[in-house]
Amino acid sequence: MLGLFGLKVGMTEIYKGDKLIPVSVVLAGPCKVLQIKNKDKDGYYSLKLGFIQTDSKKLNKPLRGVFEKTGLKEYYKIIGEIRVNEELAKKYKVGDVIDIDIFKAGDLIKVTGRTKGRGFSGMIKRWNASRGPMSHGSKHHRKAGSNATSRIGPTRPGKRRPGKYGDETVTIRNLEIVDIIKDKNLLLIKGGVPGANNSLLKIIKLSN
Questions:
Q1: 70-111 pLDDT per residue, tens
Q2: Residue 50 contacts by C-beta under 8 Å, 6 or more apart in sequence?
Q3: Contacts with 141 (C-beta within 8 Å, 6 or more apart), sequence order
Q4: Helix (H, G, I), strand (E, B), or coil: what is residue 67?
Q5: What phi, psi does 114 have (nearest 5°)?
Q6: Hey, how many other C-beta atoms are within 10 angstroms of the C-beta on 203?
Q7: E strand or H helix at 61, and its extent?
Q8: Which of 107, 110, 112 has its CA nearest to residue 179?
Q9: For position 202, what pLDDT does the model report?
Q10: What are 160's strand-pairing partners?
């Protein structure tokens, strides 16, 4: 399952025939191969990729050392791994570029990103709970209902309560690539993807 990293640009709508399709626009790659991990040495196969080229002065010493070990005279803002099989691990070498050409329209992908942080949220927003009566005299319009069981007083661990909502790593599978704009490295993905605009996404190809 080959893939790369990208940035969420935003959402728009396109027409396919007479159908209006909501799409997420993602700037995907290009990514450079910095390291190839194998099963004998590392226990699994993967490609370590660099995304968004930057200046070495903007990186700390340990991170600069990672790039200097590769022998490449390039530095990247984002480093991440993509798990692959043995065949793909042997296909690439350090310094190769993986770009949007690995995808085509109609491919199914999974997208991993960090959701928007919504801060401390109540039961209705966080867990889709039902609200109380809104009429005059009610004292629990949007409050949580009963917490404990009938036999024991303390609230049991894991009970759905108000609290921090969002800012979690989420993966959405079986998203379809509707169209590709190759000259701008843009993927048009049907539906929504996790995260705010300009947030980092990992895009993995599911179909061959």
A1: 878 888 888 899 998 888 888 888 888 898 989 988 899 999
A2: 31, 32, 34, 67, 74, 75, 76, 78, 79
A3: 131, 132, 133, 134
A4: helix
A5: -105, 120
A6: 26
A7: helix 61-70
A8: 107
A9: 94
A10: none
Assess whether the previous peptide bond of 62 is cis (omega < 30° from 0): no
Measured distance CA(198)–CA(78) in Å, rounded: 13
Q: Which amino acid is at 185?
A: N
How does pLDDT run across 135-187, given as a tens digit for each residue? 988 888 988 887 777 777 787 888 889 999 999 999 999 999 999 999 899 99
Residue type for position 138: S
Pair 205, 142: CB distance under 8 Å: no
Map out the domains of the chain with their CATH numbers. Answer: 3-118+168-205 (3.30.160.810), 119-166 (no CATH)
* Cα separation, 170 vs 79, whole angstroms: 19
Token readout for 131 is: 């609200």
**Hey, what amino acid is at 115?**
T
Retrieve residue 176's tokens.
Answer: 């379809």
Q: What predicted TM-score, i.e. pTM, was given to this entire model?
A: 0.82
For tokens 């390291």, what's the residue? 35
CB atoms < 10 A from the CB of 9, how many? 15
What whole-number distance in Å separates Cα of residue 201 and Cα of residue 28?
A: 9
Cβ-contact 52, 78 below 8 angstroms:
yes
